[in-house]
Amino acid sequence: MDLMVPEYAYMFGFLQADGHLKQGPGQKGQLRVEISARDAEILRAFQKLTPYYSSVTGRTRPTNFAETHTSAIWTLCSLEARTTLNELGLPYGRKSKTIAPPDVEFSRRGYLRGLIDADGSVGFTSKGFPFVSLTTASTAIASCLCDYGKDATGAERSLKRNTRDGIYNVLYMMEVAQCLVADLYYPGCLSLERKHSAAASLAAWVRHAGSKPKPPRIKWTNDMDRLLLTAPTIANAAAELGYSSSACQVRRWKLLHDVVPLPD
Hints:
The strands form 2 sheets. A 4-stranded antiparallel beta sheet has the order 1-2-4-3. The protein is an alpha+beta fold. Helix 1 (6-18) packs parallel to helix 4 (108-119) and helix 9 crosses helix 10. Helices cover 42% and strands 18% of the residues. The mean pLDDT is 89. It has helices at 6-18, 40-49, 79-88, 108-119, 139-153, 174-184, 193-202, 222-230, 234-241, 245-256, and strands at residues 19-23, 29-36, 54-61, 69-76, 120-124, 130-136, 168-173.
């Protein structure tokens, strides 16, 4: 399972998000992935990638969201296969906070696409704006996407857990989302068909005439803060820094009211 091969990197990312390794007595155990039956083709693709016997089955049962839900289940019992996955970073049992990108060299693009297919979203908001997001409890996973997103699009994201459930929701919107999904979901890549279709639809979005992108977030430094505090007027500071007077006014207010720390 060479993770520099995009298909294996994708599969591993998907398994980290939606797979479950279970250990039994002795050397017994299994890898199990259960997803909606509409996405069963991805499990058959995993089956073809895996040189060990495995099965794809289905079941229908009631859930909290529907009276009947049909799912597809991929089951792999090989000890050698489970050992390989475990050593690469797929732990036994509960894993949401402990998973992390592999320590070996791997295809980041394939790996992140697998995570987004399993635990992310690609599409349009209720207002028709394109977006791509990933929900994860793992700091390492969230950091990996933020780093890749910066490399691919130039957009920076700060890591912050939701106060309600302690989960990270890394979100990209508008042109940045278009750029990122175009990079991740290239023609012929292994992916969920519905996510690939959604990614393709984002490419057709065009910003309304007269609507301008938000300016990039300002990264304030100690030198910039000192200039803000010592400049004779906000207008002087704005002209010196090259930012709007309103942005400089807000930052100065935060400095004077201890909302952010004063420069060293």
